[in-house]
Write a structure and sequence with these properties.
Structural class: alpha+beta
Largest sheet: 6 strands, mixed
Strand content: 35-45%
Order of helices and strands: EEEEEEEEH
Helix content: 10-25%
Oligomer: single chain
Number of strands: 8
Shape: globular
Length: about 110
């Protein structure tokens, strides 16, 4: 997978590009997805290349309510570049909060 993120904090954090190997399988009536960034020589100058350490997402339905699932993610991202840690912490928290909010919105439309 090759994907990009928009700039964060009024572009104090430049847009990032990630190139990851990702693998998803069925797991206990749900899904397990794991991945890691790859070294990829082709780079686009408008992006800083970020790196995802080994990561994983588990999505498992609740036993008492099959219409709901528990999503658990384990990620460790290195945004790279010259960034103050406080800016990275703020951007990552904001990005994850937006991700879960957007995911909930999309899933509610599906129901």
């Amino acid at each position: 997978m090759r994907y990009t993120t928009a700039g964060q904090l009024w572009n104090i954090i430049s847009p990032r590009e990630f190139v990851d190997f990702s693998y998803t399988v069925d797991y206990k009536e749900g899904l397990l997805s794991c991945g890691i960034s790859l070294d990829w020589s082709e780079k686009r100058p408008e992006f800083v290349r970020g790196y995802n350490h080994p990561c994983g997402w588990f999505c498992v339905p609740y036993k008492d309510n099959a219409s709901q699932s528990l999503l658990t993610g384990y990620i460790q991202t290195d945004l790279r570049g010259m960034l103050p840690q406080s800016a990275v912490d703020t951007a990552m928290a904001s990005t994850l909060t937006n991700f879960y909010g957007d995911l909930q919105t999309v899933l509610q439309k599906e129901v």
